[in-house]
Design brief:
Length: 475
């Protein structure tokens, strides 16, 4: 989920009354107990075409395999120990959903069941001292497996695994293990809470192993640092009013997180828009990117996306209060096409032209439009970015300029005026259009690079979680 969907390359002060209310709620909140701590992870499944004709499981650490099923509480129930001496087993569909398990060496049939009619076969590696680790399709996993024949005649393979072991397989796949431990802990918190919020979200399983949910490589990528980050936060979740949050994360926001409803649809009180100086303080590899599109290229991109419009002559961007893109209205002088939210961030991300919008944090300007921006004292001294500006107050103190509701107020010769620092709503015209932005991701929730910068600045994972998820508790 660190990558943008559709991208080829693709990471206060409260009012006193609010504070008292939150404190009151927090003291009354019961400790959270997660009812589901065994996770079903899709390894081979139909939706992404990874369903398979057959699968081999190799018990790397233990002895062999037991067969049976996982009950309604996801506990393994043994029916047969016929595979107890088979280190490697081969599973395939014989006919009509009849699923056969053989010893890979002797070809002896160990177990069979019509999984299309009777439900999945549960397969549990047999413990031999430590925890079993089993190879499946090039990856090594803790836990057991569940195999089902799909109606198209292929097999679905799930890893049925303890939530902490699952998180250990996610953290190093989503964040470099060389990053500071507090950032790794914050990532572990997000990964654990995310899956707790997504039980059964993929139909017969909870989460898949790809970037649609969270990348999960089992034991292949784990190391001591990420394992210790998971252990240090074991059993803890990011909570709002006592319930797990949707802990979205991404690589970098380029300077501001965005409210969930301004990118997707849901309005969640803990996913709000917020300036992020941590994110901009660190080299992300995507701090500044710019691409110039011809009007013909933009027209082609729109037409290819199913929008009927002639050669684009103007684009009108609307920005959010923190300068992320909210909508783009394209016009050919006669017809208009408006895209908004995530689509506004994605529409110009084009592998065909090798030009990309990597996040929601960008501005767009037309070749015939004068630059939009703020000027200091005279019209030849344009401010590069409002995000880094400071103002001197009446008492002589300096403070960072903040933007409220997408605008700021300035004193001019004719009194106080409201200025729109992003050029929101200004019609950009021309034959070419330049996109300038920063960041990589969807901007909702935690910035991984921001978390890294916070950890390097001495902040704890609790600080990081509280910065990116407003009003939450950890428990
Ligand atoms: Zn998924």
């Amino acid at each position: 989920m660190t990558k943008r969907i559709g991208s080829l390359l693709r990471p206060i002060l409260f009012l006193l009354t609010s504070f008292l209310l939150l404190t009151f709620c927090a003291t009354r909140a019961k400790a959270y107990t997660n009812a589901v701590t065994t996770i079903r992870v899709g390894l081979c499944f139909e939706r992404n075409g990874s369903d398979t004709a057959d699968v081999t499981l190799l018990n790397e650490v233990g002895n062999g395999f037991d067969f049976g099923y996982f009950d309604s509480s996801r506990k393994f129930v043994k029916v047969s120990d016929a595979g107890k001496n088979s280190k490697s087993i081969y599973i395939f569909i014989f006919a009509g959903g009849n699923t056969v398990v053989m010893d890979s060496g002797t070809n002896a049939v160990l177990y069979q069941q019509n999984t299309a009619a009777q439900g999945p076969i549960g397969i549990m590696p047999i413990q031999d001292g430590g925890k079993c680790e089993t190879w499946c399709k090039g990856f090594r996993y803790y836990g057991g497996f569940e195999v089902t024949a799909l109606s198209k005649g292929t097999l679905q393979v799930l890893n049925v695994v303890d939530i902490e072991d699952y998180v250990k397989g996610v953290v190093p796949a989503e964040m470099s293990p060389s990053w500071p431990i507090e950032a790794l802990k914050a990532q572990a918190m997000c990964a654990r809470t995310y899956v707790a919020m997504n039980i059964n979200s993929h139909g017969t399983f909870d989460v898949c192993n790809g970037s649609c949910c969270q990348v999960y490589y089992g034991r292949n990528t784990t190391n001591a640092a990420t394992d210790s980050a998971v252990d240090a936060t074991a059993g803890k979740y990011v909570l709002y009013n006592g319930y797990p949050c949707k802990t979205f994360f991404y690589s970098s926001n380029g300077g501001a997180t965005e409210a969930c409803q301004n990118v997707w649809t849901e309005n969640l009180p803990y996913l709000v828009e917020k300036f992020d100086d941590y994110d901009t303080s660190i080299d992300t590899g995507y701090n500044n990117w710019t691409y110039t599109y011809t009007a013909e290229e933009i027209t082609d991109i729109l037409n290819s996306s199913g929008y009927k419009i002639g050669t684009v002559t103007s684009i009108t961007p609307i920005y959010t209060a923190v300068g992320n893109i909210y909508s783009l209205t394209f016009s050919d002088g006669k017809n208009t096409v408006t895209v908004e939210k995530q689509e506004a961030g994605d529409i110009l991300c084009s592998s065909k032209y090798g030009k990309y919008t990597h996040s929601q944090h960008f501005t767009i300007s037309g070749s015939s439009s004068s630059a939009t921006g703020l000027y200091i004292n005279n019209n030849s001294n344009m401010l590069g970015s409002i995000f880094s500006a400071y103002a001197i107050g009446g008492d002589g103190s300096t403070s960072k300029v903040t933007v409220s509701g997408g605008s700021i107020s300035v004193i001019t010769g004719s009194g106080v005026q409201t200025v729109n620092p992003y050029g929101s709503g200004s019609n950009q015209t021309g034959t070419t259009f330049t996109v300038t932005g920063s960041g990589w991701g969807h901007n909702v929730g935690m910035s991984q690079y921001g978390a890294k910068a916070m950890a390097l600045a001495g902040k704890t994972y609790v600080d990081i979680i509280n910065f990116y998820f407003t009003g939450v508790t950890i428990g």
